[in-house]
Amino acid sequence: MRISDYLQHGENNAVSTQELLSLLHIPNARELQKLIEAARSQGEIILSSCRNNGGYYKPDQNLEVGRLEVAAFCKTMRRRGAKTIRLARLAEKAAAEADDSQFDMWGGQQ
Fold first, then answer.
1. Any domain includes 17
2. Are the C-beta atoms of 48 and 97 separated by less than 8 Å?
3. Does residue 47 fall inside a structural domain?
4. With 0-12 CB in 10 A as exposed, 13-18 as middle and 19+ as buried, what is 47?
5. Strand pairing category for 47-49 and 55-57
6. Which pLDDT value is given to residue 87?
7. Sign of CA dihedral 51, 9, 18, 34
8. Residue 89 domain flag
9. 1 three-class SS
10. Exposed / middle / buried, residue 11 (Cβ in 10 Å: 0-12, 13-18, 19+)
11. Which secondary structure element, helix H or strand E, spans residue 57, and what is its range?
């Protein structure tokens, strides 16, 4: 059985993380995220939202509404990705510019 079999169509019918953990007998949210990532990698369209208590769902069956939901999800994912890349670059820059006095700040021994 696929994870999408447990999901409803439309953001207003999103299934919460806790509900999916219970339905699928999964021990924690990280394991659920791994399953969802794998399903998405196999081509399943599984959307998520943080609005209205959030959760996971399939696109609305009304094509126009479904396309808007997919577009909103993609926009959110792109923003998260851009933020992650920006933070990684800042960390790399800080590490490259660090000197011995900052080493102690990171918990190292001088």
1. yes
2. no
3. yes
4. buried
5. antiparallel
6. 95
7. negative
8. yes
9. coil
10. buried
11. strand 55-57
Q: Which two tokens stand for residue 102?
A: 């900052």
Helices (H) and strands (E) in the chain, counts: 4, 2
Predicted model pTM: 0.80
Question: Does the pLDDT at position 109 exceed 60?
Answer: no
Q: CB within 8 A of 82, min separation 6: which ones?
A: none
Match 């996971």 to its residue by tokens. 56
pLDDT digits 0-9 by tens, 18-73: 999 999 999 999 999 999 999 999 999 999 998 888 899 999 999 999 999 999 99
Residue 38 identity:
A
pLDDT at residue 1 is higher than 70: yes
Q: How far apart are CA 69 and CA 91, in angstroms?
A: 33
How many distinct structural domains can be found in the chain?
A: 1
- Which domain does 77 fall in, by range? 3-97
Residue 22 exposure: Cα atoms within 13 Å on the Cβ side: 5
